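During the second half of the funding period, the structural biology subgroup turned its attention to how the target accommodates small molecules. The most pressing case was zinc ion, which had performed well in the primary screen but for which no bound structure existed. We therefore specified the complex as follows and requested a full 3D prediction, including the ligand pose.
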Amino acid sequence: MKCIINRRAQFSASHRYWLSQLSEAENIEKFGARAKFPGQGHDYVLFISLGGELNEYGMVLNLSDVKHVIQREVINELDFCDLNEVWADFQETLPTTENIARIIWQRLASHLPLVRVQLFEHSQLWADYMGEGMEADLTISTHFSAAHRLAPNISPEKYGKCTRTHGHNYHLEVTVKGKIDPRTGMIVDVDALKRVVQDYAVEPLDHCYLNKDIPYFAEIVPTTENISLYINNLLSSPIQKLGVELYKVRLFESHELWADYAKNGTETYFSVSTYFSAAHRLADLSLSQEKNTEIYGKCARPHGHGHNYYLEVTVKGQIDPTTGMIVDLGALNQIIKDYAVELFDRTFINEDIPYFAKVVPTSENIALYISNLLRSPIQELGSELYKVKLFESPNNSCEIYCTESDSNSISAAVNQLVLAQL
Ligand SMILES: [Zn+2]
Ligand SMILES: [Zn+2]
């Protein structure tokens, strides 16, 4: 089974958008305040994603080795530095978020089986780089507040309390895809992108009653899925005029529920999140304590330790034109509760769940086990389990891709990489 693990790291650094061949006035005109002397700083947050098969220890890679490589190759080099000066790459191409992600990929690619480098400049702006030449994704996030009701022309019990008028703070993430300019390091003018999202999506939807104020929702049920589709249609052509492609609209109704409308609707996903609290110990009982400590570090301590595990479950499917839903939300939540949360919550995984008497409960193995538990009940709902993502801590998470084609595409990407010695 193919799995992706994500490791978080952070560094603080300054940068300045400044091209030496331009005059001061031209730099200010091109980059605005970002051209100001001496530059500005950020607490960058980095997520390195690595793909592969689970090894005999139930891990894709030893996370402490991964941590050391990221520290040595990236963090020690960039932390508390002036990015424009520290790596020569940034004299050639400016240290924008997307270009920093690209160069970090280049630094790590010979050491780790990378599948993605994600870099947050701050919580409203981040880039994803997947090793595809100069191509990168850039995401901005924003929010709006609106009222709605799920006014059903079909069985009202499907929507429960949501048939009453109520409202949400919707959190919106807009991802564009494009090519990094070899000189400015940008795939798009971020301020222009922010203006488009503000003018075309946030302004018309903020502080309104969707069913009454937006003619589109007079007939169409304003579910999170349908609102993400609507926003995609509002933004698609103005974003194209900026020279990039709208890749994905992700809309959160709350922290626990969101929809993705990607690639102009050819891929639509619905996700929910929940959590359980459990203890575990990483140790193979056939090995000595010394050997287990060597493999699993502190996680092998004899009496165990515990986490709040955050679990995200994503299903893939079409938006049903009648219900406006990709999947029956109530039924999906019930399945996750019955099959996963109830089983794991407030347990000592190694002792209370028979499967983990012999299998080491790494987050990879737990996520894999949960994906196997959920797959067929979700299929019986008429939907398809796409991904299970499990956070063991803010620093570590793993993802299991469950559909045949997605599992194979990770496999192909991983097989192309030469796994260098750590
Ligand atoms: Zn609602
Ligand atoms: Zn642990």
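Two results from this model are relevant to the next phase. Residues 280, 299, 305, 307, 392 surround zinc ion (ligand 2) (CB under 6 Å). The first helix runs from residue 24 to 31.
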